[in-house]
């Protein structure tokens, strides 16, 4: 794959990540987001969630990793945005939950950038909506 001149329709190498409760604890410490929906099963269920859920920004960051792995340089990501459409439910076991990311070059622009559309799925369902990035091709 030629990263300097990808064509419209070029697919990025897929990324599959297992998200565990341990990762949620680490992310909470790094982000200072200690909302109990991310670690307390009883609280999460009391507020109507099926179980503890991953931080939305963690899920978004993993989508960013799909891009940076492909580009080889996170500094080439010029814009990146998502909508949080469905929570990533993380069971209390050693395996966690699988989140799968794919991406496709949707548009190559004359200014040396490209728009990449990202799909993130967990449990067979899309968890990020309108996940799009603009990347610098060189």
UniProtKB/TrEMBL annotation:
Domain MaoC-like, residue spans: 15-116
InterPro entries for the chain: HotDog_dom_sf, MaoC-like_dom
Stretches that traverse the bilayer: none
Name of one Pfam family that matches: MaoC_dehydratas
Domain of life per record: Bacteria
Family, as annotated: Belongs to the enoyl-CoA hydratase/isomerase family.
UniProt name for this protein: MaoC dehydratase-like protein
Source organism of this protein record: Prauserella shujinwangii
